[in-house]
Amino acid sequence: MSPAGERQQTASELKEQIETERLGMPLLVYRDGDDVQRIETISGDRGELWIGRSPSADVSLPGDGEVSKLHAQIEHVGTDCTLVDDGLSRNGSYVNEERVSGRRMLRDGDVIRVGRTRIRFRAAAAGSGESTVISSDLAAAAGVSPAQRRVLVALCRPFKEGAAFASPATNAEIAAELHLSVDAVKTHLRALFEKFDLADAPQSRKRVDLVQRAMQTGLITERDL
Prior knowledge:
By secondary structure, this protein is of the alpha+beta class. It has helices spanning 11-21, 135-142, 146-156, 171-178, 182-195, 206-216; strands at 27-31, 37-41, 48-52, 59-60, 72-77, 80-85, 93-95, 98-99, 102-105, 111-114, 117-122. The strands form two sheets. It has a six-stranded antiparallel β-sheet, covered by helices on one side. Strands 4-3-5-6-9 form a five-stranded mixed β-sheet, with no helix packed on it. The protein is elongated and about 50 Å long. 36% of the residues are buried.
């Protein structure tokens, strides 16, 4: 079995994630031992959530032999989530490949690794509109110019060949690929954020959300990458 997180999300998996984000709660996205996407919401009435190999864990990973029975916790207070590993785990817990000793506040887009399993954390959206694919997105996709679409393809390029936990290309990388100035790339991206109603989205998530919207609507496909 490939390590969790290696295969790119399908259109239906992206749709499932985006629709779950509409609930306005933090969530965890990962793949189980059968390489099936799982989404675990962190609701306000749950003060803590366990990750481990045990069947009783909230995020149960029985197929990952490098994960301890009760490996780590996620504490939820208000809108904040913290990964806690106080030495219970045998092989440690990591956030963005940095080992956690004690507690680590989670930020939107952080990737938790326990054993061979990668778990992406998504913070609660400020409003349901930020993570909703609605009919206007299809209209926005139809209105994207050829030049804007080329920028979108370059933005999505790092997600090629199953890199589901990649980050969108930087402005400099897009400019180099398309032989444009960085200012020209910024102009195209600002227009795209406006088209997809992401202009007011948090800076930490608007580029990832733009990638999701572009792929969810079918404007950009894996073949394009």
